[in-house]
C-alpha cells in the first residue's frame, strides 16, 4: 500500500506538501502545477488515505450521514446520487440510513447515526418523524442541513421550487381545457405539501377557476393515500375531470384506484404528478410529471454541509437551476365533451 512518502517521492516534493494538498487544508501555498503533480502521483500509486489516523489527528471522521424516509423510494435515488458525487469531490464518505422501518418509539436519529461517527448530517424529514427526532437533530451539536424543509434549528437548508413545479402541473391541465380540477396533496404538516398546495391555488386563481374545498385533499404522499384521495373525489356528485397529485408515489395510488373504480385515464380523468422517476415511465398509462432537480438538490445539500462543517456557515437555499420541467406522457388529455 502506497504511503505519503511514496507519493512525495513520485511527485518530487516534501511529505508535508503532499499531506497538506491531499487533506485540502485551507491556505496551502502550492502552485497549480505542483498540486496537479501530487494528485497525479497519488492516482498513479493508488494512494488511499488512512482515515483512522486522519480522524484521530483532525477530530474529523470524513464521513457524513444522509437520513431519508426510505432508501427504496425512487424519488430519493437521484438525490442520493447527487449527495454521493459531491461528497466524493470533498473526499467524504456518505452513510445512508432510512427511518422508514424503525420500531415506533425509538430515538431514530441517535440509533442510526451513533455518536461521533459523522462530521455532519443531511436530513430529509419524513412526515412520520416525531418532534423528539427533530430536536435530537438540531440539538446534536453537529452541522445539520435539512433537505426540502426549513431547518427548525440553527442549521441551513436546501429546497426545491415546489410552488413553481405545482403551478406548471396545474397550468398544463388548464391549457388542455380542464376547469374542474382536484388536488391530492401531502399531510397538512408537510412543508413541501404546503408549498405545493400554494402553487396549485395560485395557478387556479390566475386562471379565475373556482377551487371547491371538497376537491382538495391532504392525506399524504404514499400510494394508499393517493387512492384514498381519489376515492373521496369519486364519491362527489360531480367528480373532477383531472387531478394534480403532489407526489409521484401518491399518483401511482390514484392511477391504480382509478383502474379499480373503472375510471379511464385519460379519457375520464387526467393525472399529472410532482416528480419524474423511472416508475412514471413504466406505469400504464405512463404518467405526465413535473421533473424537479433532485440530483442538483443532493449536490447542493452536500456542498452546504461541507461549508457548514468547515466554516460554520449555514444558509437556506432554493435550487432553481434547472427549473421545473413538464414531462408530458399519456395520462393527460383534453376533457371529454
Automatic annotation (TrEMBL):
CDD domains: HTH_LacI (cd01392), PBP1_LacI_sugar_binding-like (cd06267). Pfam families: LacI (PF00356), Peripla_BP_3 (PF13377). Residues 2-58 form the HTH lacI-type domain. One of its GO terms (molecular function) is transcription cis-regulatory region binding. InterPro entries: HTH_LacI, LacI/GalR-like_sensor, Lambda_DNA-bd_dom_sf, Peripla_BP_I. It comes from the Bacteria. PANTHER family: LACI-RELATED TRANSCRIPTIONAL REPRESSOR, LACTOSE OPERON REPRESSOR. This is LacI family transcriptional regulator. It comes from Salinibacterium amurskyense.
